[in-house]
Amino acid sequence: MRSPNHPYHPGHALSDREQEILRLVVQSFIETAGPVGSRYLARRYALGLSPASIRNTMSDLEDRGFLGHPYTSAGRMPTELGYRAFVDNLMATPELSQADKHVLKAELEQLMGDTEELLRESSRLLGRMSNLLGVVLTPRLSKGVLERLDLVPLSSSRVMVIISVRSGFVKTLVLEVEANMKRSELGRVVAILNERLAGLTLEEIRETYATRTRDLSGDTTGVIQLLGKASNTVFSEPAEGRVRLSGTQQLITQPEFHEVDHVRHLIGLIEDEGYVVHLLEEERPDSPEEVGRAVVSIGSENSDENVDQYSIVTARYQVGDTMGTLGVIGPTRMDYKRVMALVENMAHLMSRPLPLA
Q1: What is the CATH number of the domain that holds 190?
Q2: 163 occurs within a structural domain
């Protein structure tokens, strides 16, 4: 995987004039979605340069891989390298307007008491405010600290396992059980498990469950053995349900998606929840320093060649001692400054400490 936010190589150092022309070409292309010509730049901006001088500079930038053009006679458009130089060095510091900050804060604060609604609405907000695809991943529960484990018998052959982590998130799953499971001592065995496992991360429990319960091999309820066999499932990330996604309607209004095949390709990708999780969480460390820091992957920098025509902007958010990821997916021609500011602000607003005991 190419490293997101990897700056362009020092060997690509640009002169002041080249930087300014590249910045304006990228900025203009993002705004207009059309190739940018030298006369357009000369008329729109007070550069003190003739169209010929601008054209020569654009030609040099093209020779060095920062610009390209779709036709021989057309203006230029940014390449991936051009976008990367723009994001890393040329654009202004990402910052939302006060109006946008107010909208985000007001809408999210109303939802802080309802985690599920918060996650769902935050993806809608991302999609609506970026006009792209907003994605929110629930926190990685395997990094969460177990608060309580509960088992609820559903029938003679099925039991519901309820995993509550300290940050307030809950995972439930149904397991098949032996028909002769003894229910009379279920509460006692569950209490012993909570005494031994509460306070550990689910990842720690998954790795050490056998050792921590070895002396309970005589359990007559069958719970110890059941959870041992299913520990890789019980104490891991949920198999599904982590993705909240919104903004498909806004995204397909972008010029890049006027072709039906492009829309079909994107829809096919985002229907696979595991694939979306892979794209947004690939090699992102669980570190407090990552919270609220936008990371940009442009085109072929993404972890899979199937998304080499898209850019992905993500940031981590933290709820208690668990971390999730939110982000925006769109064409490489996106308003990086606004999108980065949007995901950073939302990540900070969604991050909150553990609830008071």
Answers
A1: 3.30.390.60
A2: yes
Is residue 62 domain-shared with residue 186, that is, in the same domain? no
Tens digits of per-residue pLDDT, 82-136?
A: 999 999 999 988 899 999 999 998 988 887 767 778 888 899 999 999 999 999 9
Query: What's the pTM value of the predicted model, to 2 decimals?
Result: 0.85
- The domain spanning residue 322 has which CATH number? 3.30.450.40
Instruction: Give the domain CATH number at 39.
Output: 1.10.10.10
Q: Which residues contact 16 (CB under 8 A, 6 or more apart)?
A: none
Same domain? For 338 and 272 the reply is: yes
The residue with tokens 């030298």 is 38
Cα angle, residue 271 at apex, residues 269 and 272 outer, rounded to 5°: 75
pLDDT in tens, 259-284: 778 778 888 888 888 888 888 887 66
| Alpha carbons 191 and 206: distance in angstroms, whole number | 18
CA distance 237 to 134: 21
Burial (0-12, 13-18, 19+ Cβ within 10 Å), 284:
middle
- In order of 11, 70, 258, 302, the CA distances from 39 in angstroms are 29, 17, 28, 34
Nearest 10 degrees: CA dihedral of 254, 258, 262, 266?
Answer: 40
Domain that holds residue 273: 98-140+241-350
The one-letter amino acid at 81? L
Give the start-end residues of each E strand in the chain. 67-68, 77-78, 133-137, 146-153, 158-165, 170-176, 243-246, 295-298, 310-319, 322-331
Regarding whether 346 and 254 lie in a shared domain, the answer is: yes
How many domains would you assign to the chain?
3
Q: Which residues contact 52 (CB under 8 A, 6 or more apart)?
A: 38
